[in-house]
Amino acid sequence: MSNQEIVSLGKQNYMSNYSQFPIAIRSGKGICLTDEDGKEYLDFVAGIAVNALGYGNEDEKKALLEVIESGVLHTSNLYYNSHAVHAAKMLNDLAGSEEVFFCNSGAEANEGALKMARKYGSSKGKSVIISFNHSFHGRTYGAVTVTGQEKYHKGFAPMLPSVVYADFNNLDSVKALADEHTAAIIVEPLQGEGGIIPAEKSFLEGLRVLADELDALLIFDEVQCGLGRTGKPFCFQHYGVEPDILTLAKALGGGLPMGAVLAFKRAKGIFSPGDHAATFGGNVASAALAEVVLSKLPDLSAEVERKGEYLGAKLRQIVSKHPSLCIEERGLGFMRGIELKISPRDVIAECMKNGLLVCSAGYTVLRFVPPLIASEENIDKAVAIVDEALTAFE
Ligand SMILES: Cc1ncc(COP(=O)(O)O)c(C=O)c1O
Predict the structure, then answer these.
(1) pLDDT tens track for 332-349
(2) 47 lines ligand 1 (CB under 6 A)
(3) Number of CB atoms found within 10 A of residue 246's CB
(4) Which CATH number fits domain 3-56+298-392: 3.40.190.10, 3.40.50.280, 3.90.1150.10, 1.20.1250.20?
(5) pLDDT of residue 76
(6) Residue 126, ligand 1, Cβ within 6 A
């Protein structure tokens, strides 16, 4: 079937909650994708910061084939499976956490973290969650409530009670809201959907001190910025500030749905049997791919740290070259953005025409989240296409 036939079948049968580009992806190799009409693209979207190892990775293929050969794709959490317990051990070793809960997505990981926070606070008379303006934590009710952007709440009231919003990178605004009723503070160390905005070191350090003073839990949402994307296995490792709870998803399952909630010292043992669950959590196939991704994470992160500097420098050159269209470059590692003065969607469409997939973050930022295996040569090619696209709008 052609792009057009698939797109029209989608339009006839899907709910209209997405504004999708009119192509359908057929196959991928390395960091390149091919659509149903045979057009090739360099992929700097990676399934929105998911496909860390790119497409057609041999180790992922082997791991998945072994799971298929075993005949067991899923067991439920009534029983253990070797892949999930190994993935949990690898996460705890890499992050310095003590326990892991597996689920299926970023929103679901944040729901788990919020329930942990409320349970932690329940015997202490605390239930208030402090979140941040411009944050994004997912679309389920708890996750969307702590998402500090009005556009995601519109039409869905009432939201979860006892959630308040402070300004990102403004510790005084947090202190103004914090008191003995605060159960948790949830924050992205590098805001993604809100526009690729990194936290300042003093801000995260201040949140850590405040959470300790209040006996509240500090939750870092690293669904997008975790797992090697910023050039360390976890983004918080750039800051030397450890959370009480860390949420992950996106890259974790190597392209299969998988999320995780990691508990550090103070948050250990909050859940008892029966408190929380997910039928598919720690699913055999997802966990087998997580083992592959996690085994490569230390080397991959080091590479991203180096290549991310290169990407950042190249994007800053673009900003300097097109001052009438660009405001600034921001980000860390392979999670970067250029704030534009024009709609990112038009630039994205122009890049797509020229064989590059990029996406937006918020209304003004052109986002670059390539597979972690992207090379300097890939970066040069992608940046040249963005340069050409911007030139078309001058
Ligand atoms: C920081 C952050 N948290 C949570 C989510 C929600 O993840 P999911 O779409 O897997 O529910 C996202 C998705 O973009 C995210 O960027």
Answers:
(1) 999 999 999 999 999 999
(2) no
(3) 30
(4) 3.90.1150.10
(5) 95
(6) no
